[in-house]
User: What shape does this take?
Amino acid sequence: MTASMEEAMRQLREGGIGCNVEHKSTDYSNHTGQDRPSNRNGNRSRYRNQNGGRNGNRGNNRNTNNRGGKQIAHKFSNEAATAPYNFVSLPVHAMHSGLEEFVGNLSDSKQKDIEQGYKKYINSHETISGYIELELETLTPVFIRNEGGDPFKLGNVPVLPGSSLRGMIKNIFKMITMSTMRSGEDYIDRHVFFRRLMASKDTDYLWAHDLHDLYIGRMQSDEGSKVRPGFLIKVRDNYFIVPSKAHKETIYQYEQRKGCYGTVTKTKDSDVKWHGSSAYILTGKLGLGKKLYKTLEEYEAYKAGCRERGERPNPGKQLVRYIRLEETQWNERYPVDITEYMMDNNRGGVNLVDKKYMRKVSDLKVQVNIPKDITSLAPCYYVPGEGGITLFGHGQCFRIPYKHSIGEIVKKHLREDVVDYSDAVFGMSPYFASRVYFEDGKPHNSVKLMPEFQAHPLLQPNPTSFQLYLKNSVGQRLANWDSDNAEIRGYKLYWHQANGKGNYKASKEELSEDNKKSDDKKLCLPMKPVPANTKFTSRIRFKNLLPEELGALVMTLDMDNTEKNIAFKLGQGKSMGLGSIKLNKHDLFVETDESYTRFLDGTNMANACQKVDSSEYRAKFKEAVPKALKNDWKRIMDELTVMLDYDNTKLPEWHEKTAPMRGEYENKNGKLQFTIHKGFADRRALPTATQVIARARE
Assistant: This one.
């Protein structure tokens, strides 16, 4: 599969390959697992296995499935995906903090009562205050962006911002303390969008058929397509869809009649073209080498001839559709919530609410009686629904949301409104503040930054790639977001790459493509990282921590004094091998009874805190882990240690085993084209972190 990089990236986005885990606002119906898609003839899913397993559901995974009397030989890829990241599993149950019994259920308690309960919690326990002295060393280049290609600085001195250190430590702290997974902090609850119109019975893996059936089941009824034409209209701050009628003609007729040859056949992207009061909906370029039929009758005759010969018609794109303002039912308005539609940042082509397509009525200059309260509109297609419309988009085969949101895949008991250790220590706005404070990391010596370079495009996480973000096994049936057994993998962390092994500089082909873009759309951004082997000092100050809370905090810094070479990830470019940083020293100082009785220590100011051994506090935290959760806690600690071990970089072919599945450029007949990585096209499943290590050791 070859294309320009721009076209390839569009295919990756629309195909769900590669969003931030993201705000549920649209009220989609609950998915029970009983509303499996029907085909055009009213039959249930065509891809059952012989033991009754349904698409995406539990059931025996056969080598072949039966479709229309023919065997589908392709199952699921037996090759594993590679990725620069992996996941630490979520706990079976969240561990509650002792603070919870003082503040009660947050959703049922008043803010004043919670604040008073918090104070009572602190005053009724022996607490510790002090600081942890940190010495950090960059094992690879580290880059935390300030402006342009410069790193974050105080004055002219590069520093590690305290806010970045806080985020790094808090993320690990949540895993160690088996905290809840909160919407808005750990993920943004939204619905993931997808589209799968076609699936070949001979060449596609079964995941393509699963998605195809799921898609067709939402877009078609037993009687045929449920998709209807209309206009998305804006009335003040609200959006509605109003029904209309659709017409079609051949692309040949359209281009001849409008005198605009190439508008459809040479366009790269979907578009909307207005001609008078008619909005023409263009859905991308025509397939190369396809014959254009002049009339609808000629086109229909071609398809009829194929059917008579037992052939499958393959004419490419032949039709263009348009919707007329005169035939629109302006007063039949269906409310639409566009919040999640706007959050689908993987959509390529037409975004209906963009001002480029949402045309102002005053700009149309047509003699059509459009109600005066409508300020702007765009042609669209939609599927009618009770209480409003949730399925709508550009063209007849638009992207639709899965019924399950991301948050619904996270187990309910991990989303409950409870107080966990992370809440208690790092604060919970607006109820109580953090009891830990992070100072900026300041360099030991002057820092000579690396020469500026332009980096590989920093792509965002993409949960449309369910084979990577949901629990799936290599070679087995893939769960997607609407599967009954769908389960989120957990907390995402990036693998370390040995210094100098990271591939972070943009290729000349990427730079060539990027130079064609406007400044606001460039992806190969400049960087001047802090180099490897740069040392910084910082402090974590803490106030009124309980012994077990302090124990959890110090364990976060070294995974309980394990012999592993623990390092963390910080800043941008983690997927490219940047950002590995080690804590060489983390000395604990606490206030004692004598801390404030001495003003001077000889001729110097006395230190209010004394250095102590942290083992007592570590033991207190281990004792606080409920007996029923200890095995689960050990599993999480083992997985986390595996992900943070910098010595993984010494394993044979480590870089190849954890490389991103980038495509590559090839010279095809004198033209540079970008080929998408086959691992994405096959939707190879991602092994677990421990499986990645085992594969690297083979």
User: Anything to note?
Assistant: The longest helix spans residues 162-176. Confidence is low (pLDDT under 50) at residues 12-71. The chain has 18 helices and 34 strands.
